[in-house]
Structure formats: C-alpha cells, structure tokens
Amino acid sequence: MTIYFYKVWQPYGCFSNFSPHCIEIDGTHWPTVEHYYQAQKFVGSPDAVIIPFIHAASTPEEAAALGRCSNYQIRPDWDLVKITVMRAAVFKKFMTHPEIRQILLVTGDEMLVEDSPRDYFWGCGLDKSGENNLGKILMSVRTEIRQMISYSVISRKELSP
Ligand SMILES: Nc1nc(O)c(N)c(N[C@@H]2O[C@H](COP(=O)(O)O)[C@@H](O)[C@H]2O)n1
C-alpha cells in the first residue's frame, strides 16, 4: 500500500520537510530541513546575504517563501546539487530524531509519496505523474538506516522508542 504524505498535521506528517525536527549540518543548527534546503540555494550566489534571513525565519513556510522569491539569484549549479543537498538533510533528520526514525522504519518496503498537488519534482503532483524525488530520498534513507542497523553502526537499543 502506498503511503502518501504532505502536510505536517496529516498522517505521516513527520516525512514532510516542514516538520518541526531540527538538524545540525557543518556546525550550524537549522530549525527544519526546509530552512536548510532553501538556504542552500544561495550558497556562493550573489544573493548569499539572504541566507541568515532564511536561517532566522520563524516558520518553514516563511523560509520557503524567502527561498522561492524570484528577486534573489540562486546559485548556478542548484539543479545539479539539489537532490544531494536534500538527501543529506533528510538523512540527518532521521538520524537525529529516533522517534521519527522508528516511524520511517515501520513503513517497511511501502512506497512513500509526497502528495503535493503542485510539485512535480519533489512530489507526485496533482495527477500523480510527478517524479516524487522526496519520496525516493526517504525510501533510500530508510534502506541506508536499515543497513546501518544490520551492520550495528547504530544499535538496535537506540531505535527503541
Ligand atoms: N509541506 C509542504 N508544504 C508545501 O507548501 C510545499 N510546497 C511542500 N513541498 C516541499 O517544498 C520544497 C520544494 O521547494 P522549492 O519548490 O524547491 O522551492 C520541498 O521541501 C518539498 O518537499 N511541502
């Protein structure tokens, strides 16, 4: 059975990048994956001054609005790096928070799909034909964490709620 997720307050809302699960990457603390992801659009760009404002945004929605503002110039290699950037952040989120790691692992081998009606890249889009790259990342993170458990890189005990 395919598992659809989208908004934070809906079932499996912890799979959304807008969920309130902080991450630390390269020594910087980010309130959500969305804050980190949106800020990375401007690393090395002429508009890098926007990064601290995205970092300080009071909600992920605000961070996303700043990151999507067409007045600011995105780094030229963004399309090449955005999947790698997103995967690193999503992996960090599920390594940091054992309670949602457990939710992810309990989905077994089910297909995970971001049910965004507008986003055909990260989600499946309105007609479900989208690329679902966020769902693919979550499934790949799930596989990686499972492998780490079987190699005992993280202990089974650590996975107990
Ligand atoms: N929960 C949620 N609410 C929204 O309004 C969304 N658009 C999304 N999708 C996420 O948006 C991010 C993509 O942003 P860009 O289009 O690249 O600026 C990404 O995190 C999607 O998962 N989710």
UniProtKB/TrEMBL annotation:
Show the catalytic activity.
Answer: 5-amino-6-(5-phospho-D-ribosylamino)uracil + H2O = 5,6-diaminouracil + D-ribose 5-phosphate; 2,5-diamino-6-hydroxy-4-(5-phosphoribosylamino)-pyrimidine + H2O = 2,5,6-triamino-4-hydroxypyrimidine + D-ribose 5-phosphate
- Where the record annotates domain NADAR, the positions are 4-146
Q: Which InterPro entries match?
A: NADAR, YbiA-like_sf
Protein name (Swiss-Prot/TrEMBL): NADAR domain-containing protein
